[in-house]
Design brief:
Blueprint: E1 2-3, H1 9-18, H2 23-34, H3 48-57, E2 58-59, E3 64-70, E4 77-82, E5 88-96, E6 99-103, E7 107-109, E8 124-127, H4 130-144, E9 150-153, H5 163-174, E10 186-190, H6 194-201, E11 208-212, H7 218-224, H8 233-247, E12 252-257, H9 265-275, E13 281-286, H10 300-312, E14 316-319, H11 333-340
Parallel strand pairs: 1-2, 6-9, 9-10, 10-11, 11-12, 12-13, 13-14
Antiparallel strand pairs: 3-4, 4-5, 5-6, 7-8
Bound molecules: S-adenosyl-L-homocysteine (SAH).
S-adenosyl-L-homocysteine binds near residues 116, 117 and 287.
Length: about 350
């Protein structure tokens, strides 16, 4: 059966035409799907016959909530969803002044192997479909009753390793007949797959690209991010400059502050030098503890010093406020606990 949630309006129209249906039916069905209909039976402006026919051809993905945790401190909500095949992914809803932001997963597990990340501990299980990525935004909005205005692709998985589904998801979630979320309200975070960054640049999307840099030199970056061994910091930064030139969109660099690993004065100064002149913004994230990892967060003093070094060189650097600390709302930790059978 065909995965209808991953289809765009043009594909639906084409399919429906082949089924001998009128054009407006495609728009009706697309609208129902993107309002969260879980079955064709809910689509009450279609005849019973038509609903039956469609249900024989197509399946509608819709995940179930396995766990839902709500932070008492800041209202952050973390969902663990179970999909049709039994695999689970996490989604986090964060409340900011400018709007509600959903952090979605793009894959079940991750193949990238970053030393500080809980999502990669069991490797990659499978990539999500566009519909499954969309479902996270849609059903988080429906379940929480909170309208979602912003999306970050910063959950489990490497979005550019699942390129086609992610681009399709962006098209769907941005569609005026669907959730209609502006590209300017979407951030995509990558560990730095350079060929895919070039491919993305050619699409000229208005989203924000975040690059998880975490170190300005190969020795440090090789230690914590295996992906660096095949490409290297300088080639990655060249790619980022190209992206900026091609799209006019400034890149945001993520930098997890890890005690004694990437947070020295030397690292700060080298980072400032390498990012000069590209309008870069650095998003410093105090490392979240992952039980399986010996890496620890930097001290407050080191974080302040690092930020000052960057700002003195004219690079804007902000320290990310940590939300949902009381509910493991970070970096694949809930799915990990579920897999390990902890409750
Ligand atoms: N694979 C993508 C997106 C998912 S991770 C990427 O690498 O960018 C989202 C961000 O969280 C990345 O910057 C990632 O490096 C960071 N991250 C992962 N584990 C972390 C941890 N324990 N503490 C702080 N940041 C972490």
């Amino acid at each position: 059966m065909k995965d209808i949630k991953s289809m765009n309006p043009a594909e639906l129209e084409q399919d429906f035409k082949e089924l001998g249906l009128q054009k407006f039916r495609a728009k009706q069905v697309f609208t129902w799907l993107h309002r969260g209909a879980r079955s064709f039976d809910e689509m009450t402006n279609l005849s019973k016959d038509l609903r039956l026919r469609l249900s024989e051809q197509y399946e509608i993905s819709s995940p179930e909530v396995v766990r839902k945790q709500e932070s008492k401190k800041d209202g952050t909500i973390k969902y663990l969803w179970r999909m049709k095949d039994g695999n689970c992914v996490e989604t986090v809803l964060m409340r900011y002044k400018y709007g509600n932001t959903v952090c979605v997963s793009s894959e079940v597990g991750c193949a990238m192997g970053c030393a500080f990340c809980a999502s990669t501990l069991g490797g990659l299980v499978r990539r999500l479909t566009a519909g499954e990525i969309l479902d996270q935004v849609l059903f988080t909005q429906i379940d929480s009753g909170q309208p979602v205005s912003h999306i970050v692709l910063m959950g489990i998985g490497e979005p550019l390793d699942n390129y086609d589904a992610v681009i399709r998801f962006l098209e769907l979630v941005n569609h005026p007949d669907g959730m209609n979320i502006s590209m300017r309200h979407i951030s995509l975070s990558t560990c730095g797959l350079t060929e895919r960054i070039d491919k993305l640049a050619s699409l000229h999307l208005q989203l924000t690209l975040s690059v998880s840099l975490h170190a300005p030199d190969d020795e440090t970056r090789n230690r914590i991010m295996p992906v660096n061994r095949s490409c290297g910091v300088d080639k990655l930064l060249e790619t980022c400059r190209r992206y900026f030139a091609e799209t006019g969109r400034r890149i945001s660099f993520e930098y997890a502050m890890i005690d004694g690993v990437n947070d020295t004065r030397w690292h700060g100064e080298l980072l400032a030098k390498k990012l000069a002149g590209m309008g870069a913004h650095v998003n410093m994230i105090p490392l979240n503890n992952v039980e399986e990892s010996p890496l620890k967060p930097s001290s407050r003093e080191n974080i302040c010093r690092f930020q000052q070094i960057l700002e003195r060189s004219g690079i804007t650097a902000t320290v990310r406020r940590s939300l949902g600390g009381d509910i493991d709302a970070s970096c694949g930790q809930l799915r990990r606990k579920q897999l390990l059978g902890e409750h």
